[in-house]
Amino acid sequence: MDNNLLAKYAKLTVCKGANVQKGQYVVIKAPYFAAEFARMCALEAYKREASYVECNLFDEQLTRLHYKYASEDELKNLPQWQYDKSKYAIDKGCCYIYITSPIPDVFNDVDAKLLADVNLAVNQKMKPLQYYTTNSVGQWTIVAYPNVKWAKKLFSDLDEDDANEKLLKAILQAVRVDEENDPNILWDKHDKDLLDHCRKLNEYNFESLHFVNDLGTDLYVGLVRDHIWAGGMEITTDGRKISFNPNMPTEEVFTMPDRNRVNGKVVATKPLCHNGKVFSDFSFVFKDGLIVDFDAKTEKEYLRQVLDMDEGTRHIGEVALISYDSPISNQNILYYNTLFDENASCHLALGACYPSNIKNGDLMDDEQLLANGGNISINHIDFMFGSKDMNVYGKTYSGEEIQIFKCGNFCI
Amino acid sequence: MDNNLLAKYAKLTVCKGANVQKGQYVVIKAPYFAAEFARMCALEAYKREASYVECNLFDEQLTRLHYKYASEDELKNLPQWQYDKSKYAIDKGCCYIYITSPIPDVFNDVDAKLLADVNLAVNQKMKPLQYYTTNSVGQWTIVAYPNVKWAKKLFSDLDEDDANEKLLKAILQAVRVDEENDPNILWDKHDKDLLDHCRKLNEYNFESLHFVNDLGTDLYVGLVRDHIWAGGMEITTDGRKISFNPNMPTEEVFTMPDRNRVNGKVVATKPLCHNGKVFSDFSFVFKDGLIVDFDAKTEKEYLRQVLDMDEGTRHIGEVALISYDSPISNQNILYYNTLFDENASCHLALGACYPSNIKNGDLMDDEQLLANGGNISINHIDFMFGSKDMNVYGKTYSGEEIQIFKCGNFCI
Predict the structure, then answer these.
(1) Which one, A196, B71, B195, B323, has the greatest CB density within 10 A?
(2) What is the ipTM of this complex?
């Protein structure tokens, strides 16, 4: 691996991703094999005078062993210190750096019900702390790191080292890290472009969107009143107003659908990797916002269990627009990972909405969000349905219809 | 690396080292680059129906960054959740598996006073929980794993991979893991041999030992009344009476010196690696148990700071006998690591005694231990002074003198 490029990537992660502040407490979560990259991020954070960089290294293959062999009691009862540990960092006004590196099929032989039950129990325990990232009270960023199994899934014809190297190159390209340029400057421009796009859509203030293509998608998505289109850079909602990029890469602009005004059918165009399991060729039928029917070629039973985790998982909380002709989309790589694939294609998210996608959303409690059409759930699961032939139409409150996408791309 | 031999090593660690019990909570601490070996240990523990295997992966090179750049306040004030986390496992009657892999000189450019201060603060915070391993309430074991920097320090003429492989082989040889034999059976025999040795020394019930060699060591070490020689296997002191091997490898038999009856000079014969710093060519002069003078060729100032950490660090808490002609000694490798080097040579430990080395010691509080000649300290730092020409004499309470070592080896 090229250490100079990795160091550039680490600096981008710390500066444009989390935008670590002087004196700030930083939490890094990374797979053990990314420990050296995590350490590079820590060094960059310390260069910006972070007070402390807490680094949590995990091993998903060990997690698999827990699911297969640990006592159910231990799995479901998250110890109090785990909660206190998160609260400790949040009380200090921390920022989060999540280094993600999905290992395909790692939980394939894990009992699906147990997986869902444990996730539910853990999420319920940690729920009181989720506002911190969900509401962007502090900065958080997700960046990706390669691993051999992931790389071999994408580039099966290459040997392990070459595949891994190729995946790293693709990741770096997607986040605009190269030898010549300062990625921080490229991201300033990129953030500005996304901001311009959002402003345009916000000015139209659409009542609903209509998605239609030849694959079978024919879906009406109502938008909540006073919805806000957002994308790229965000600003912390506490008094500090610190800018950060929650996702690197990011190409999307997204807003809040009305949880009760979604009707029709949506057909996914990319597989979805969730908790190490892969749903492929799946579709949902909505009636008044609720998923009333669904199908999937793989893991249908686990998908049902996910949908049944809480009432909100059967509604959507996010709708996002990305041109088919976008940088990541043009790489023509199926990453089997949301961070990349969601930025290559229009997508929806099952589950929780982002309160920042509605005016004064950060001041609303769950009840108020629901009353305004927002969705509440312990889940937020993106799935992709954009296609080359996708047309999208926006309907304004005055009844005017505006074409937003023509043949997969923005035309507004 | 040979995965079959590693799996054998993991099984030995779990069975003969920690002796994991059905339904037991297991805590593993390992450097991130030993994650796969840690996972093998976890699998073995789950095969023995452990209730949960908590695995903590650390990165000493990141710890170095903390020492260099983090706020002193964060470094010295261990968060409460860290304490609670340890207590959680102890309350469940856990056992510990420590996978050690020293990175030479990793803290070389860290401020020595800060290092000592932080260690002191952390140890003070965690002190109420130290009884669990110090008194062997639950099982614990330390095993070693190679790393490239360590391997290159030992075998500088080899390239990185070959050096690492050679170090792994040496480690496996030292813990009796090979292709042909079942190491569990070899350890049963080894534990029995050490036990026989202890019984002999306990029968003599020496009042004091006298060490003398041509390098300048001429040291009288009083032993506490009712001292107990121990070595190899231990038994948990709670009701469960579970056998375990705290150190793998282990070749020593050891007992409790009288903290106030040590007189003369001891000259170290191997460098000592402590917190990533290396003391070499050092010696101590004792008067009535107290170190009244010392010297060191390297890191003398840091050694002074360590000695000043608390009063007990200037006294000794352990004396151990190992034949110069022992398996690890015969490898003729200086490991720069206590786990190995202490098993190649007679040694003493600055700081805390093991309560199990005196009759009813596990029932004594600090005051009672001190009153009986035991030593109390937040430190326990072994250093080696055995040599090829070492003679050791034991004096009984009836005034008889028995030669225990002749020319470096047991002759009793």
Answers:
(1) B323
(2) 0.85
